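Aim 2 progress. For Alpha-glucosidase, the working sequence is reproduced below.
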Amino acid sequence: MPGEARTDSWWKTAVFYQVYPRSFADSDGDGVGDLGGVREKMGYLELLGVDALWICPVMRSPQADGGYDVSDPRDIDPLFGGLAALDELIAEAHDREIKVTMDLVPNHTSIEHAWFAEALEAAPGSPERARYIFRDGRGEHGAQPPNNWPSIFGGPAWTRITEPDGTPGQWYLHIFAPEQPDLNWDNPEVADDFEKTLRFWLDRGVDGFRLDVAHGMAKPEGLPDMDRVETKMLVHDDDDPRFNNPGVHAIHRRIRTVLDDYPHAVSIGEVWVDDNVRFGEYVRPDELHLAFNFRLAETPFTADGVHDAITHSIDAVADAGAPPTWTLSNHDIEREVTRYGGGKAGVARGRAMMMVELALPGAVFIYNGAELALPNVDDLPDDVLQDPVWERTGHRERGRDGCRVPMPWEGSNTPFGFTAGKPWLPIPADWADRTVEAQLETLHSTLSLYRLAIDLRATRPEFAGQQIEWYGSPEGCLAFRRPGGLTCVLNASDDPIQLPPGEVLLSSAPVAEDRLPPNAAAWLV
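Predicted structure tokens for this construct:
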């Protein structure tokens, strides 16, 4: 039966490491990270102790949105090294007992996908157009978009095409950039093709997928206007008709039937849904194995906020019997060091929150560079910005490039071993003390703390159990206990606090006389 393997599945407690390939390591000197670079750094990933990789999109793409505009979902873009590079990476990772999961994009394709080219050449109402969401415009001569939906990236969610005879024609839907036309999942051909894609990668040895915009795909009947037209990236709004429509669950059940043919494989959904009941529907035993919950990544560094985010995240999946997921940042979200105030305080709080998330039951996702305490780079020159948000908002919003700056590996000068060429985004010169090389040589570095915390989580029996029990704690603090015997304490107050009884297993800052300093966390057994 679907879901019966949950009890002993590797992904249930895994530490995933998110690789944003453009920014991880460049093996060919073109300034853009690639799969060869990931493979070359596999020893580092093994040293870090992670269980699995999540690799952001590397399929063929014109790169209008960092690879989330896919022109061929069953090939690897030459920018990242082609299919051979992925095969070599999978083999290397598996030799080191690291799983490999990759991003897939079911909601939309690139405008350079063969299907979309065929749709532009075909007539309205044709089978070629029926793979996407084409509609006649409203108003005189169809000059207005079919409805009032905005794009996530700014501007309308519709673009008008020129028909093959040269006349102004129909409009196509793109919830994201115009280069990313939405697929019509009511068309059986779309589901059949996605199944081919799933099996193509699973048969090559991939261990599962992170499904982009997993609460998308299904569109409401008739595409009604929005009551309130406003758009922001990555927010919880359960009244948004563009997302979280009931039909999406049939799509996930179809996907799960494929995954069930590969018992080792995991499906992980990007699900921006606020209501716990509706969120939990995505991880029912016959749908997704895991769903990203972004509560911790959206929560300020306060004890009450963190407590509520943890409680909410556990409750959201409890009825479905699925593990919770935890993350503090990713390629779309401001890095936690900056979000928590920047500077020394931001680093200290980021270290503490890492220990909180690793103390929790479920699966953890670490974004590349978090283990180095990298901050956001919010002063990138305007002329290097590449996120489509920058252009689509008329240069009002700078987009997500600040959290995508490449990894610093070694040496004292930029680009710190990331590339032999010019990096696709500049790396700050003052990151010399944050390189992997510098931090591996420093006992109390953030990287060393991550390594030790991940190792303890994997090897100590005190981390057992699927629940937590909250402890009483001073104002501005929180404490919880795992059934196995681990106690985690977070001090988000301004003063040192007395730790509860127990041996300090690990702390994010030095503990003196059983007192935990502000902006710190500790594990006790």
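The radius of gyration is 23 Å. This observation will guide construct design in the next reporting period.
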